[in-house]
Amino acid sequence: MTEKQPPRYRAIRLWQPKISNGSTVRSAPVRRIGTLLAALALATVPALSHAMEEPAPDAATLTEITDDDWSTTAVLESGDTLAGLLASFGVSHREVHAAVEAMDGIFSPRRLRAGQEISLMLEPADGDGQRLLGLKMRPNVEQDVEVRFDGDGYVAQAIPRQLFPSLNAVDGEINRSLFADASALEIPPATLAAMIRAFSFDVDFQRELQPGDRFALLYETLHEHDGQLAKPGDLLYAELILSGKPIGIYRFTPESGFTDYFTADGRSVRKSLLRTPIDGARISSGYGMRRHPILGYSKMHRGVDFAAPTGTPIYAAGNGVVEKARRNGGYGKYVRIRHNGTYKTAYAHLSRYGRGIKAGARVKQGQVIGYVGSTGRSTGPHLHYEVISNGKQVNPRSIKLPAGERLKGADLKAFQEARERIDALRERHRPQSTIVAVRQR
Ligand SMILES: [Zn+2]
């Protein structure tokens, strides 16, 4: 949960203020970044240049190979492994093994996905085999991974790629749909999704948005040196003005390490617990007395059952720490999360656990903690979900969810500073002129 400290902004390719249909204005994102950001950028320069002076290991041997030698480009297909792909080019088992081993601790080839391009440097070997002299790939926009034969063996390195952050301010009006209007402003889908997620505790996006409502965003994007968008960055601020009523929320990371969005007065937008920790499921058995389907007698059902196919992801109902992630009698595979001094939630009959879910792991609301199954005493795939309040199971539907947590003390103070910084950025990035839409009726 490391949080990037003040993002480095650097003025790079700028798009010009763009006016679409006269209804929305996009401000020029970076050019007007003032001294505040310049100071931030300067502050980080020494560390940055130091990192870049660091000589690459075995640079001398590695540079003997010129780029022209990368003659072969392979594409990893679904189900392929890197080792399998290399073997298919006639590379000996021994070399494949050594090259993959060289990557140990640098990059795990298991993280490669279908469609990954890999450049290979090969040389004919005895028989119909080929010798592997090098391979390189860009598994993600942030790094290149290279493995080269240096005469004795293989040397792997991960080369961080420099991306250039840019700050973007947009202000738009909802005319068609939030999605269509945001897309027209080139807001990256992931940024829009982050906004919707942050507001979804308070706003019903299916029903509450009306033509004429407005939205504003301040967000980062990361660019290649030529200005191409490499990936969306953080959403720093989002605002919705619904029926004239503005709600603005700010991104902030309190000491707990969980980044979240907060209203101007420091209240988390996040309600403490999700009532339904699973998508698209139906309640197959509610909380209360019922006849037990396996044991046959009437019994209090101290949870809610959600019917869903095996393998359906189950989300952590709230931020917290995993207390248990193991088999637990009739519950089968079972996860319990402690959210705070009052609430815990439990999830039973899982087919398997989510990645990294074990006792002591911190989880974030919405993180996948496991998958629906039918382990333990269960008649078919479903999630048995319990909310435990002060040690007792309670009906998740009846609990009154506390409003978002309010920041206090040092967190509140740090938030207020962060908010002022964001507000100052918004001020600098305010569209130069706001063109009022003239809608034809
Ligand atoms: Zn149940």
Could you walk me through the main structural features you see in this protein, from its secondary elements to its overall organization?
The protein is of the alpha+beta class and 441 residues long. The chain has 3 domains: 1-45 and 162-271 and 405-441, Nuclear Transport Factor 2, Chain: A, CATH 3.10.450; 59-149, Nuclear Transport Factor 2, Chain: A, CATH 3.10.450.350; 282-394, Glucose Permease (Domain IIA) (Distorted Sandwich). Helix content is 18%, strand content 34%. It is built from 7 helices and 25 strands. The protein has helices spanning 35-53, 59-62, 82-88, 93-102, 178-184, 189-199, 409-429, and strands at 18-20, 24-26, 72-75, 117-124, 130-140, 143-149, 154-160, 164-173, 214-223, 229-242, 245-252, 260-263, 282-285, 288-291, 298-301, 304-307, 313-315, 320-327, 333-338, 343-350, 352-353, 362-363, 368-371, 382-389, 392-394. Strands 13, 16, 18, 19, 20, 22, 24 and 25 form an 8-stranded antiparallel β-sheet that branches. Strands 1-2-8-9-10-11-12 form a 7-stranded antiparallel β-sheet, sandwiched between helices. A hairpin with a 2-residue loop joins β24 (382-389) and β25 (392-394). α3 packs antiparallel against α4 (93-102). 30% of the residues are buried. Residues 1-65 and 432-441 have low confidence and may be disordered. Bound molecules: zinc ion (ZN). Zinc ion binds next to loops.
